[in-house]
């Protein structure tokens, strides 16, 4: 009888102890974690077809993670994992051909003058 009672009390203590972990998890403050390249639309608006990779790097900076297998595609990723709320994620993909910008895609609006080269 004593061993059954002690086993039951140990099991009850474990259940209560483990269930309190999920409650404490909600009460613990976690810092906001930004990762990647933070870009604003006003910076993306400066992009033009025919810009060199150096010109793009001057305007936006280089992507945090570069693709070792495809140097003609730059992917700018930004992700904010806030303490509370929804995860915020934005990306910009730039494609180059022979070192010149030819296309952009992603979560940013294409600039109105994107198709107008800087030379004109």
UniProtKB/TrEMBL annotation:
InterPro entries: BamE, BamE-like, BamE_dom. The keyword Nucleotidyltransferase does not apply. It is found in: Cell outer membrane. Keywords: Cell outer membrane, Lipoprotein, Membrane, Palmitate, Signal. It comes from the Bacteria. Its main location: membrane. GO terms for biological process: Gram-negative-bacterium-type cell outer membrane assembly; protein insertion into membrane. It holds the Pfam family BamE. One of its GO terms (molecular function) is protein-macromolecule adaptor activity. The keyword Membrane applies. GO terms for cellular component: Bam protein complex. PROSITE patterns: PROKAR_LIPOPROTEIN. It is a lipid-anchor. Residues 36-103 form the Outer membrane protein assembly factor BamE domain. Part of the outer membrane protein assembly complex, which is involved in assembly and insertion of beta-barrel proteins into the outer membrane. PANTHER family: OUTER MEMBRANE PROTEIN ASSEMBLY FACTOR BAME. Part of the Bam complex. Belongs to the BamE family. This is Outer membrane protein assembly factor BamE. It comes from Idiomarina aquatica.
């Amino acid at each position: 009888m004593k061993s059954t009672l002690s086993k039951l009390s140990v099991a009850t203590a474990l259940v209560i102890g483990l269930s309190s972990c999920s409650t404490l998890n909600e009460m613990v403050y976690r810092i906001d974690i930004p990762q990647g390249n933070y870009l604003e639309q006003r910076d993306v608006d400066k992009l033009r077809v025919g810009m060199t990779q150096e010109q793009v790097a001057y305007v936006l900076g280089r992507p945090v993670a570069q693709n070792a297998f495809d140097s003609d595609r730059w992917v700018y990723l930004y992700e904010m994992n806030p303490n509370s709320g929804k995860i915020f994620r934005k990306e910009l993909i730039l494609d180059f051909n022979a070192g010149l910008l030819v296309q952009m895609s992603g979560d940013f609006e294409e600039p109105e003058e994107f198709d107008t080269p800087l030379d004109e």
